[in-house]
Amino acid sequence: MNTDKRTPLLLLSSLLALLAVGPLLPEWQFLATLALGKGLVVLGLLLLLRTGLVSFGQGLYYCLGGYAAGVMGHYWGVTDATLLLLAAALVSGVAAAVLGLLLARYRAIFFAMLSLALSMILYGLLAKSQTLGSTDGFNLAPPTLLGFPLAGYEGRYALYSLACVLAFLAALGLHYYFRTPLGRLATAIRDNEIRVEYLGASVRGAVHVKYTIAGVLAGLGGALTGMTVGHIDPEMAYWTTSGEFVFIAILSGTGSVAAPFLGSFIYELVRTFAYEYSPNTWQLALGAVMLLIIVFLPAGLWSLFRRRQGGAA
């Protein structure tokens, strides 16, 4: 069975396993849901990395998605999780499509720093907004799904299940996107952008589409995180948050659409245990993990599986 056929089966089996394990480990559902939310953001980064671009500003769309869901829930009284996710995807997608017209012109360090600057502009605006809670942000009421509140034991599992399904659909969709002509342009642009232009393809247009997709995924991750934590604040757009996503992307590798979620789970586990046993130096543990990954697994954690599979997913 080739890699193309294995990936959907791997994603489906992972979905079923997560749904089955969830009720057995209720104390881990919160952590897993957070990891899935961040995994969605890193999934968008994977798309950009395969194109040869590094964005230090995905916190911009992560924050926009969170605030879109938060404003609808806190100020407008909309609590349905599906509507909140759709609003987050729409707001972050429109913002990414508009800003992508500018960012698609740049490459390398210029792309990275400009994306970071835009994210910090949003942070500054939100931190000064008294209406939206300034630096404290604001709380979100527990969302609902089909009229049932996502609170309590059953509600938390329902939100966890929603996150699992959303991650599955996003990863599966991106997997098939990579098999389209536009999706295959990613590695071609990374390897030789000039040759792609000579072949008649629009590099700027392709980058714009990929950046918009990455923005939508980040917005969905932000909304999911906001609903899980029950709180939104400007820190979601701060540079350390965007750096955290890049950290996870390096940890994961770009070999598969499943890699971002594996990396997110590992990251959250390491951070949780490091903070529990060494609250004053937990960043040191994360740095040590990153150093070990760079030295021994420069292609990321997924390279361990890729060697066995013999290809990228």
Q: What can you see in these coordinates?
A:
- The protein is mainly α and 313 residues long.
- It is built from 13 helices and 4 strands.
- It has a domain at 21-238.
- Helix content is 72%, strand content 3%.
- It has a two-stranded antiparallel sheet with strand order 1-4. A two-stranded antiparallel ribbon has the order 2-3.
- The two termini are 13 Å apart.
Q: CA-to-CA gap between the ends?
A: 13 Å
- Biggest beta-sheet profile: 2 strands, antiparallel
General form: globular
Structural class by secondary-structure content = mainly alpha
How much of the sequence is in beta strands? under 5%
Instruction: Give the proportion of residues in helices.
Output: over 70%
Order of SSEs: HHHHHEEEHHHHEHHHH
* Number of contiguous helices: 13
Low-confidence stretches: none
Mean pLDDT: 88
Order of strands, main sheet, comes to 1-4
Number of DSSP strand runs: 4
